[in-house]
Amino acid sequence: LYHLTGLLHISEVSWDLVQDVRDVVSEGDEVRVKVIHID
């Protein structure tokens, strides 16, 4: 797998409402994501 840096919008972090993304992930955490759009 490739290691890339990108942006994960707060609305895509969880199915639940997230007020503060730091409640879910911390800076430097590695997360698995699915790329749904490339700009």
UniProtKB/TrEMBL annotation:
Residues 1-39 form the S1 motif domain. InterPro entries: NA-bd_OB-fold, Ribosomal_protein_S1, S1_domain. Transmembrane segments: none annotated. SUPFAM superfamilies: Nucleic acid-binding proteins (SSF50249). It comes from the Eukaryota. GO terms for molecular function: nucleic acid binding. PANTHER family: OS03G0844900 PROTEIN. This is S1 motif domain-containing protein.
